Amino acid sequence: MLRLRRFALIASLIVFAVALFAQPAMAEQPEQEWTYSTNAYITGSPVYQNNVLYVGTQSGKLYSLYAPYGSAQWTFTTDNKTPTAISAAPLVATDEVTRQRMIYFGSGQGTLFAVDINGKEVWRFQADSSIDCTPVLYNGVIFFGTFNGKVYALSAEDGNQCWNFTADGWISDGLAAMDNQIYFGSWDGHLYSLDVGNGKQKLKVDLNSRVNAPVVSGDNIYVGTQDGVLYCINRFSGNVQWKFETDGAIVSRPLVQLNTVYFGSADGNLYAVNETNGRQIWKFAAQNGIRATPGFDSGILYFGSSDGHVYAVDARMGLEYWRYNAGSAVDTTPMAGLGTDRKKHLYFATVNGDVISLMLPDSLIMATPTPNPSPTVTPTIVPTPTVTVTPTPVPLPTAGPEPQSSWCPLPGLLAAALAVVGIVYYRRR
């Protein structure tokens, strides 16, 4: 009996060691379905609605692609003589008056277009300078910003101007709207809040660096800056609740899900921090900078990197499920959607102009490990809205070699659990 117990103990320890040190099990990989080449640079994320993808290019064309096959339904050119770039994702929304689905987008020539889902122009508005952000629709009004620092409010029905507001710097990315206020960052170093009805300034928070696209969640605004700091700001008082520092610019809008703020940095990391106190939950290292907001679906984060990969990472643990080599930088947000085949697909675009569709693995859509990790980093608490930060420039990591495999942690965790059960059984005997 003593020998049997010793054997059980040794076997349990062997299983435990295998769980710790053995080669990780392969995770199921996505399958590429199709690639559509636009032959032009793409910097704005594709938008997926009702089995159709809408994407603009630096050559001045807006494409409507039928997602199941990757075929073009129509294209719209900003100007037949001298097309100008569409740098940001279009807004696809339903007009609250006509109940017609419309596509709104800006061009490098400063024109905001409204076209219907058949690619027919409904109206256009000429702004003062280049439009490099995605418009926002709120209460029947379209809001957008320009390179010269102006915010415009237009009637979504006919494009007539309601008002405009002038900041002192480029409005380089999207705006956010909530409770009759519009929020945006400017390269003049401030975060702004305006009344949606008349454009009067409500807040102006000095963040001492170029400010990018905000997201509003509850009572707070979350926004990143060019000096690599993520701020949590009370949207009523303008007070900075906390800040979280990284080693690279935060150029895209943060994502708030599961009481967590997710965002990428030019330092090559995707971060997950607690939305209440700013403590780091985890970070995931890509091989180069992350310039777009991550996508979220069924507990999984999908994001691209300038290293040329799209990653699938567990939202709670930060563990990698798989990565896909897209062949060139992916500075857009991947979008997951249910196709006509009732299966999940992932759509994204590369900087070199390819729009790609992946079939997502069935096993990763429903099964996601969800333990409760502990915070590891304490943020700096800032009592006032004026923040002074001296950033240290950090060069972007150089893209490394293609990894040999993606992995799933579940087999190792299962083996470890069996080892623990064996040890407990032995001790009780």
UniProtKB/TrEMBL annotation:
PANTHER family: CELL SURFACE PROTEIN, OUTER MEMBRANE PROTEIN ASSEMBLY FACTOR BAMB. This is Pyrrolo-quinoline quinone repeat domain-containing protein. Residues 202-335 form the Pyrrolo-quinoline quinone repeat domain. The keyword Transmembrane helix applies. InterPro entries: Haem_d1_sf (IPR011048), PQQ_b-propeller_rpt (IPR018391), PQQ_rpt_dom (IPR002372), Quinoprotein_ADH-like_sf (IPR011047), WD40/YVTN_repeat-like_dom_sf (IPR015943). The keyword Metal-binding does not apply. The chain crosses the membrane at residues 409-426. Keywords: Membrane, Transmembrane, Transmembrane helix. It comes from the Archaea.
